[in-house]
Description:
Elements: H1 2-34, H2 52-55, H3 61-73, E1 77-84, H4 94-105, E2 111-118, H5 123-128, H6 132-138, E3 142-145, H7 149-152, H8 158-175, E4 180-183, H9 195-208, E5 212-213, H10 241-256
Parallel strand pairs: 1-2, 1-3, 3-4, 4-5
Amino acid sequence: xxxxxxxxxxxxxxxxxxxxxxxxxxxxxxxxxxxxxxxxxxxxxxxxxxxxxxxxxxxxxxxxxxxxxxxxxxxxxxxxxxxxxxxxxxxxxxxxxxxxxxxxxxxxxxxxxxxxxxxxxxxxxxxxxxxxxxxxxxxxxxxxxxxxxxxxxxxxxxxxxxxxxxxxxxxxxxxxxxxxxxxxxxxxxxxxxxxxxxxxxxxxxxxxxxxxxxxxxxxxxxxxxxxxxxxxxxxxxxxxxxxxxxxxxxxxxxxxxxxxxx
Length: 262
């Protein structure tokens, strides 16, 4: 009888070990599936799935060349994001959300990201206060620049805004003649009159001066529609949390090809 009890105990113990290992493997598998894959050196993995090239498909060639250089030299490409800080508190700005997403996808050996946000800033003040020096000193390889378009509206004037951007970029480019600059407008404003023309002028300016341009307004409801109020606070041109996320998601797809990698 004692022998049978011992045999039964061994059987129960072995069964518990097997069940525990199966549970653990399943847990690890599920966690791995839910966690984003951070991509790094494509030379170790080939050009297929899992390399940074899969996530950089929407980026201009000038940017992908810099990422390739970062991989080859083991010195990360420096991406500096510059924009307007919100007037009203939000959980996270579009720039912070974009940085978080990119750091989930790209290994830090490939891209180093720095965010600079300025409250109530205009292009004129950016020059007069020498604030542009903060960006120059950051030594960006790629500059994602939202040049305070809305804050300038009705204060500086679009012609002066564009001239100020030229001055700002001239100073920054002195530190890096190989800089890739991507311009984008501030958030849309409900039923705005002149402001949409400012955004169009900025896009034309980008084309004429060889800068990339991201028109994230296409991701928003029409600025003439009340639907856009779901994404804005009562402060004109100020996104709420939903607006910041909407803005960020558009840029996330641009920088990480996220819609194709869900």
